[in-house]
Amino acid sequence: MDLNPLYRSLVLGVANQKWLERLVRTHGWRFARRYVAGHTLEEALDVVKRLEDQGIHALVDLLGEMVTSEEEAAAFTGEIVRLVQALGTLPYPRWISVKLTQLGLDLDRELARDHLRRILDAARKVDGVVQVDMEDSPRTDATLWVWRTLREEEGYENVGIVLQSYLKRSPADLQAILHLKPNLRVVKGAYKEPAEVAWQDRGKIREQFLELVRTNLAAGGHTATGTHEAALVEEVRAWAEAEGIPRERYEFQFLYGIRRELKQGLALQGYTVRDYLPYGEDWYPYFSRRLAERPENLLFVLRGMAQG
User: Fold this and answer.
1) Is 192 known to sit in a ligand binding site?
2) Using CA atoms, how far apart are residues 304 and 31, in angstroms rounded to an integer?
């Protein structure tokens, strides 16, 4: 029996308890810093520079999601534009990630589209790329609509999209956009999802992960693999090499603070490696999902808190 989905469901369910959130926010920041670059843009930019010194690029993300007012959405948009402009002053690749619920997706998908358009316009000016993250399954259709509207109808080529291999619908979603040769990031998925919509078996999730990566690469789309599983990374690398796919068409993306040796080894071999680099005050939901991925992550934090 694969216990990983049960563990993830349990941790994410407990993480929603307000008393636990208050406890972790009060005492857990020193552990969250393993996965989060800092509270401020300036701290994040310092980490971007340190990663570049190691041959690793950054995919920078201002943490925050599921805003409840147009004012909040506009404020997040303004801060993300400021992030893009700050990256534009640095001599490195300018890649950022956004969640559409930051931009008002739950209020109005057209509002989120308009805010994303503003961010894309700012990114164009600094030769930047904006990757639209995929959130939980009830928001998949709206997220794909916003991305496709800007990519296909309005011609923005600097906008990428993420698909999750644990969602049963993802192969069909990819087929529907394959003609656009999307800049695609493939991840396994970190949200609590029911068995009706998401595979619960790790073997099936892994199989579909490889299917998505290979399908997009074969169709000519730039593809990023978002996994920390060394064997899966090696399967993608070996397949791409055997198929003669140029290295500039694919890359390996990791979460900041995880699998340092693996990512540094790939960078030394000349592969493009990019760290998903989150920062900001709203770090608790992201941190919770990291704890839910592996029991070892949770044990690390619990041991540290017990030791004071």
Assistant:
1) no
2) 8
Ranges of beta strands (E only) in 123-211 are: 129-132, 159-164, 184-187
Please indicate, yes or no, if residue 135 is contained in any of the structural domains: yes
Round to whole Å and give the CA distance between 163 and 93: 22
Ramachandran category for residue 162: left, alpha or beta (phi over 0 → left; psi -120 to 50 → alpha): beta
Q: What is the pLDDT of residues 145-155, one digit of tens each?
A: 999 999 999 99
**Residue 184's domain spans which residues?**
37-282
The one catalytic residue in 61, 106, 133, 136 is 133
Query: Among 134-138, 171-175, 304-308, whose mean pLDDT is lowest?
Result: 304-308
Residue 305 covered by a domain: no
- The CATH number given to whatever domain includes residue 73 is 3.20.20.220
Cα angle 222, 264, 216; round to 5:
15
Burial of 29 (C-beta count, 10 Å sphere; 0-12/13-18/19+): middle
Tell me: is residue 68 an annotated ligand-binding position.
Answer: no
Q: Is 274 annotated as a binding residue?
A: no
